[in-house]
Structures are given as structure tokens and as C-alpha cells.
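Re: [help] complex structure
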Amino acid sequence: MIQENVFFSLAVALYILAAIQSLLYYKTLDSQHDWNSTQLLWSGIILHFLAIFFRWKLTGYVPVTTFYEMLTVLAFCLALVLGLARFRISLPILNVLFMPLILVFSIAALVTPHKELKPISPDLTTPLMAIHVLATLLGYSYFSLASAIGGTYWIQERKIKKHQVNFKNATFPALEILDQRTTYYVGLGLIFWTIGLAFGVFQAFKIWKDLPITDPKVVSAFLVWVIYASFFVIRWGFKVRGIKILVLVITGYLVALFTFLGVRLLMVSHHFF
Amino acid sequence: MKFIVYGLNHITAPIEIREKFALSDSDILEFFKKIKNKTSDIVFLSTCNRVEFYFLSFKNEKEIIKELINYLNQFYSLKDSDIKKYFYYHEGEAAYLHLFRVASSLDSMVIGEPQILGQVRSAYQQAVNANMVGSILNNIFLRAFVAAKKVRTQTEISRMPISISSIVVDLSKRIFSSLQEKQVLLFGAGEMGELTAKYLSLEGVKNLWIANRTYEIANSLAKSLNGFPLTLEEGLRKIGSIDIIVTSILNEKPFLTLEKIKALFLKRDFKPLFIIDIGVPRNVDSMVGKLASVYLYNIDDLASIAKINHGMRQKWIVVAEEILNLEIKKLNVWINNLQLVPTIKSFFKKFDDIRAMEVSKFIKKNNEFSEKEINKIDHLTQNIIAKLLHSPTVNLKTIETESKKEKYMEILSDIFNLNYEIKNNTHDEPQDEQQ
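Output below.
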């Protein structure tokens, strides 16, 4: 437990430093700050992974069964997808947009009581349940990434349209690249989300012998799936691109956020978190 | 030792003079052979905008410059008045600053243009290959490259296009991932349109269509730009598959109307369309710019970006100059410490001679020491001397002002009677440094 806490606290500290460096980059446009930010992010990811690993060793099952565990693994997934994305797209502003999200979830995890290990239903500790949770968390992380890149597209597009180009948005990639990357990450998100839902449905039938279709979390999760699936229908079927289709990406992300946090905080659900 | 720059550039000399000194590689190698007996540290930079010699002089700069002028006279007979009018001479800090500004593109005709750094590197490499660069000149140039890199990465000077054509290319790159596969259509054969198309061509655009009222004009322009000629009507029909349109047609009313573009737009699958209207009166209805995925810029829009970028560049120049000043300060510290080397060497030598003499006397008096013990005594006394002299040496190096440093060097020389040794070492120093 001590090792987990130490590693997790250090990871959060590194995430904070990475966020500060990304803000400094945005202020000064010195690429050294962006480099520092990404290095700190990766250092944080490694320590964060170790924290999760020690928790895993302590519990004996994949630690995605409590609200605390969900928050810390979600923060980890977000950091990981950002770290991986930075290898594929030169977009320093992603760190500026994304680090606050990672910080919100990791600091929320840090302040959530988690030290005591309570007895838990064996149904929640199966590998299938772990796949269900991990896949949906990864799906959500990729949707967040797609939204951040989509948001950048939005800013860049408006600036070019209104003839307000300046050196700050000169650091953004071309609209076409942002459009392609948004679609790519929505696709990855949808794959993970679909796996998550499929395993969730399977688990529901196994535990409850039925699918609770009126459960707000289930309804909300399926709504997210419908929104992102329709994104591809409109994108590929009707060839629509640009701002018009970005509305779907952002809406899908907000509904996914509500699925994770809104339902737990505002409604009653069969889900623990 | 002095670092000197001598030459002319686009500000001091007209193209008619500069072009006379556009020398070939073999000319430059021949020049190096001739100048070697005057200086063995020289870099010759020759571009379309400048002809410059960077060299080290050991109180013989007049001879070197005379030799340079003699050499240049082979290509163009320079009168005394020409030399006074066109050539400039900088030494010491002013020369460092000049080199750093040249490498960082602050002294270029188009400030921020990236080619100059490559040209300075090539000139330096050419001199290195000809064994004309010793360690001091090498260090000065390497520091100039570091400074230039800092200016490029820490400022936005090179990212601020200010000509209309380069702004169009910059905007195109903000919209499209790659320009190579894009379809570009130029309406009209005006000078500005042609220049813009040429810039896009240089960026790798392969599919360039030129539409004009007179097909023959379109055809001849297409040949010169490696494009395809079209009549005006053919051009209008082609818009559905085009990514970038440049229009510069003399027309009283806009010929690209909202209805026309809208009708063609359905075929485009919402792909982005970048329209550059440089015609006066305007060729494109301003309402076209309201359509989704259409980016319309007219000549005034481009001119206002150019104005903003120009202002931004001026601000970044101030930042760049600060970076260069900081780098020159570092170079000065290095150069100044280099001047201390003879004094410090003599200082150490004086102490070591006394130590060696006393140790030798002591060993002769006391015959009982083995070779191993003698080595130990030698080692111990050397360590004592090194430790005793460490602190004064470091303090000497950290003195900031040059005059104070010189004063301390003089005092040190007087107290320890180092003059004889310094003279000898000073004579050797440039050769030592160059090895």
C-alpha cells in the first residue's frame, strides 16, 4: 500500500509539472517546454503503472473494482493515450488541453479514500469484468483524445476562415491532418467501447441473467456507441467532414463523460461506479 | 589575436559588383593556397548577397587584406574608391556579432530566410577540408551555428512569411497535409498569379492547371510552369475537382459567384477549397467565403497578414538580437580565458621548476630513498603545487572585465618574474591552439 501511494503521488506530481511545462510552452512557444512536458508525462506514466501494479499485487485481481481504482486507471489510460499520440502527431497543444483532464481524474483518485481493502463480490474480480472496465476506460480515453484534436481543428478552422492566422496557430498541423487524426482516434475509441459494451452485456447476463436496459449507465453507454457509430456512417456514407461532423465528436464525448461521472453522481445505477 | 570580417554585401554593394565575385570551388581552393602564408585560419563565404572573409590575424591584418584585394582584383579591377565604398571591416566583438547575425539570417535581404545557415556551414566545411580552420576559428563558427539554431527554434522569425506568394503557400500548408497531390487551378496569367503558382510549384504541386481567356497565353505559361493549359470555360467546369484556386483576371464583376461554386460544391464531398483572389476588381463573390470548407482570401486579406507578420518579425528580431548578445558574451569569456593560457602556463611552469629543483636537491642529499619512494615524493609535491595554484587560477579566469584581467596578469608576471616565459609561450600559442 505504501509503495502504491508513493508511486501514485509521485506520478501525480510529475503530471502537475508536465501540465506546467505545457502551459509554459503555450506562453513562450519554446519547444524545449513541450519536450520537457512530454518527458515528464512519460515519467509519470511509468510511476503510475508501478502504482497500479502494486495495487494489483495487493488485491490479487486487476484493480478496477472500486471508484478509486476506476479513477486512477482512467487517469492512467488518458495519460497513456496522450503519450502514445504524441509519437504520432506533432501537436504540443494536446498536452495543454489534455493534462488538466488527467490531473482532474488523478487528483480525484488521490483524495478518494482507498486505503482500506473491503471484501468484494467475486463476480467483480473476474478477468471478463476487468476487460469490460479496461476497454470502456480506453474507449473513453480515445474519445477524449479525438475531442481534443477535434477541438484544435475547430480553433484552427475558425482562425483560417476568419483570416485571423497568427504564429500561435502556426504550430498546429494542417486541417486535413487534424481531421484524419480525429477520425482515427474516434475509430480506436469505438473499437474499445464496443469491446467494453460486449463484455458488459455478457457479464450482465452472467450475473443478473438479464440486461438491465433501463439502467441509466447502460442507456448512456449505448447512446455513446450510437453517436460514434453514426459519426462513421455520416463520414463515410455521406462524405461529410469538417466542423459539421465535429459536433458529433464533442457530443459523444460529453455523453461519455456523463456515463462515467454524471450517472454515478446524479442517478441510481446497477453499476458500482 | 584578432577575429576579423572583411567583405561586402547586398546593403553595401550593388548586384553588378557582387556577381563578379561569385567564385567557383576551384577558385576558392586556389585562393586558400595563396593566402596560407599570411593566415592559416580563414573562411570564405560567397553567396548571391555577400562576399565575406572571416579570418584570424596576429597583428598582420593589413597584409592579409592587401592579399585579399589582390586576389579579388583578378575577377574585377577594384579601385580604391570602390574598396572604400563597398567593403566593410569589423574586428573583435563587432566581427563576432556580424558572423552570428549572418548565420542567424538577421543580416539577410529577406530576414529569417533559412538558406543562409546552410551556406555558412558549406563555406566553413570547405575551409575545414582545405585545412584552413584551426581550433579558435572552429570554435567561433561552431558557436555561431549554435546561436543560429537558438534563434531559429526560440523565435518565430523564420515562420513569418511576408510576401503575398509565401503567405499563400503558408496558408495552403495550414489547410492541406501535403501539396504534392493537390489540384491547383490558376485563372488568368497576371504577374502576381504567375508568381503564386510558381511558389506552389516549388512546394511540389504536380497538378497545376492554367485557365485563360486566350488559350495561347495559358499554353505558354503552362509550359514554363510545367502545368496544363485550359480555356476559361474548361477551367470553370474543372472547379469540382480542384483544391486551390488562384484568380487574377481583369473583370468588372466577380466571375466566380456563390451560385456557381454552390452548384459545383456538391461534387466535392465537402473537401476543403482554398481560393486566393488576387484580382482587382475582385474575381470572387465575397459570399463564397461563407460556404462551409471554403477559405477565401482576397488581396487585402493577404496584405493585412503581411503587415501583421512584418510587425511580428520586428519584435522577434529584438529577441533574436538578445540571444546573439548572450552567445557572444559566452564566446568572449572563452576567448578571454584563451588569452590567459600563456600566463597560467608560465605560472605553473615556474612553480614546477622550483619544485623539481628542490626535490632533486633533497634526493641527492639523502641517498637512502628507493625509486618507488622518489616517485611518491615527486607525486606528493606535484599535488601540493597543483592545489596551491588552483584557487588563484580559477579566480583569474572569473575576473569579468578585460582591463582588470590584464592588470592582474601583469601583476602576476611582475611578482613571479614570468615575463620571459610568457613571451616564449605567446609566440607558440596560436600554433598550439591550431593543432
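The longest helix of chain A spans residues 127-161.
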